[in-house]
Specification:
The first copy, chain A, is of the alpha/beta class. Chain A folds into two domains: 144 residues, Aspartate Aminotransferase, domain 1; 238 residues, Type I PLP-dependent aspartate aminotransferase-like (Major domain) (Aspartate Aminotransferase, domain 2, 3-Layer(aba) Sandwich), CATH 3.40.640. Helices cover 44% and strands 15% of the residues of chain A. Chain A has 13 helices and 14 strands. The first copy, chain A, has an eight-stranded mixed β-sheet, with helices on both faces. A four-stranded antiparallel β-sheet of chain A has the order 10-11-14-13. In chain A, strands 1-12 form a two-stranded parallel ribbon. In chain A, strand 4 and strand 5 form a beta hairpin. In chain A, helix 6 runs parallel beside helix 7. The longest helix of chain A is centred in the C-terminal third of the chain and has 26 residues.
């Protein structure tokens, strides 16, 4: 039977991540490819205890249908934390709980995008976002990401010329590049963007995982009516629970609420109450500080290994938080070709290509450090150095 | 700021359910309005024990990112259960775990529907499905539901004339009407449908909650390549965990998988492993049998109360399972008007209107019996009878 799919179904391809998964079956493979938090950071015992409490105190309620907008005390917690950490005022009734922030992205795309509407993204950008916008038949405009943030000259030019409906950015420790916008870049961004009728999607899964205490003002604070701020517990508590959120002005919040209702009614009531119980019984700041220490050490070790073993013609972007290092090979070298060579040496990473729209054989690639052991970082970077050396010649 | 929403955003209205919620704040209100399972049926202690086991045996794994398609042992369980209960062969790699079957509906709509594509639905139909199809800008074709199933003459005529891409049906104990397709109706349906290039969405959240042992062959068995069969643990274990699934032929499964990936990566890993642990440690058949007994008794009590108190000009559809009774008022009487009269007498139900596409002041309404107490059924039906009597005059 010849199935009659929607037009949008033709636009979405298998992601390269699926290709990589094949190689991860090999137990000797060292992987810097994932975007996974380190499981040693998961508060297993505390969550176990919290789950007992939730079942004991609220068993029937937690198993019943619940509110589409999410568990009220959890929304309150998120609102208070924004105030505490960023002095940012977000009323809890403008916070919609979603199944990971990925789902918020889906609802935003669904709410704003007709086919051929334009979305402005950083280059490189998060491949899951590209995939989601693609599934709503968006057209992409890309803006180069510098080491201190988005290119402002290009931003103004493209906003004027292309009138995109949405701008998608990850200002803190971007996936894949690790780039953080400087305070100056953030202010410049806001100055330009406020002159246009465009919505900013500020994706911030890594903001709490900073290795330095430099001020990083949320774009939401600079552009409150124009910004949809997304957050997540995936990188700070546990991704398996699939809990994130989006903060939106009321007029947009209502549309996102309706999308949530038509999509899955609400996120897991158990997971929401479980996380809230955990947050009530434990010191979240102490917990996050321990993740920062763990990841910062891994990042430093990986940078040092790269410095020791990689040829000097290979560059690495500065990284002050998050989970990734971004490597730039000499011009003309293909990280995709390098990937298949590296597989033979039992080490994998994510080649740059899937992080770009319509570009192939780019000379960049992503290394994940959060989920690699000390031993694997040393040995994996050595193996990778060998492969690069050979392919440089 | 004037936001530039997508066209589809204009199509979705607030559901009437939100309106009803307002009245449920009143503690004296008797509600037959929800679509909620009875919380007394939730296996709280068994799930609590299962959650301990999962955290103890698999804590780090259960909190990590997981496979988009769902937890493999859970997919295996569902495959085996179809074989056991219906002698239906569904390979586990054609089962995609979703966050409630509502989410499967969203992915199916996204995969198949371009704006103005036609969807054939029963009249009345599940309002959540109407909302989801609406959000993809579908056009609706409706077919009258008889007491023994869908109207076959009309089905053939409309398939020929309108060439819909999708047919959405709930053959077992439909929400809202409680109607079940007879075996003859199912066979007639399949005979007609197999002549057309159309996909059948067989939504089956209530199939296991039957009060009689009549044979009910899944449409999936009669039309394997054309049918997407959706199921759910919401009505048999707990809706708060948001776990359902869809069974799809490989070519369609791949598209739904991609939708899932772009939407929320995967459903809660904890909830999936929790349900699987529960199913491994407990007798699911015994559990479901106890729900059947509970709901069947409530249904019988409600039918008896209606028979005792309602005017004879009010009809009720036969009901052999599920959670709802469907009431037909005398022609010309509006259940929406009646709703606001009933509110004054402190009893609520769902008027028929939201279950129809573009019809207002219908003479039908839905009563939920699964979540009402013995006392409330007696008293609520009495109150309702009084309101109907007054409005008949």
């Amino acid at each position: 039977m010849e199935y009659r799919f929607a037009r949008r179904s033709d636009r979405v391809e298998d992601s390269f991540i699926v290709e990589i998964f094949k190689y991860l079956q090999d137990k000797e493979m060292i992987s810097f490819s994932g975007g996974f938090p380190n499981p040693d950071s998961f508060p297993v015992d505390a969550l176990k205890a919290a789950s007992q409490k939730v079942f004991e105190s609220n068993g029937k309620n937690v198993l019943q249908y619940s509110q589409t907008e999410g568990y009220a005390p959890l929304r309150e917690f998120i609102s208070k934390r924004y105030k505490q950490v960023y002095d940012l005022d977000i009323p809890s009734d403008e916070i919609l709980i979603t199944s990971g922030s990925q789902q918020a992205l889906d609802f935003i795309a669904k709410t704003f995008l007709d086919p051929e509407d334009k979305v402005l993204i950083e280059e490189p950008s998060y491949l899951g976002a590209i995939q989601t916008f693609n599934s709503y038949e968006a057209d992409f405009i890309t803006i180069h990401l510098n080491e201190d943030g988005i290119d402002l000259v290009s931003l103004k030019e493209k906003l004027t010329h292309d009138q995109p409906k949405l701008i998608y950015v990850i200002p803190n420790f971007q996936n894949p590049s690790g780039v953080s916008y400087s305070e100056e870049n953030r202010k410049g961004f806001a100055e330009i963007v406020k002159q246009f009728n465009v919505i900013v999607i500020e994706d911030d899964p890594y903001g709490e995982l900073h290795f330095t205490d430099i001020k990083r003002t949320p774009l939401k604070k600079l552009l409150p009516d124009q910004t949809l701020l997304m957050g997540s517990f995936s990188k700070t508590i546990a991704p398996g629970l699939r809990l994130g959120w989006v903060c939106a002005p009321q007029a947009i919040y209502k549309k996102l609420f309706t999308s949530k209702e038509a999509s899955d009614l609400h996120s897991s009531n158990l997971d929401q109450q479980l996380i809230f119980q955990y947050l009530s019984d434990n010191d979240y700041d102490t917990h996050i500080a321990s993740i920062r220490t763990m990841y910062s050490a891994k990042k430093t070790q990986m940078e040092k290994a790269i410095d020791t073993y990689f040829p000097k013609s290979v560059k690495v972007y500065p990284c002050e938080g998050g989970m990734f290092l971004w490597v730039v090979l000499p011009e003309g070298m293909s990280s995709l070709d390098l990937f298949y060579e590296a597989v033979k040496e039992k080490v994998v990473f994510v080649p740059g290509d899937p992080f770009y729209v319509g570009r192939q054989h780019t000379n960049t690639f992503r290394l994940n450090f959060s989920n690699a052991s000390e031993k694997d970082i040393e040995e994996g970077i050595k193996r990778l150095a060998k492969v690069i050396e050979i392919n440089l010649k």
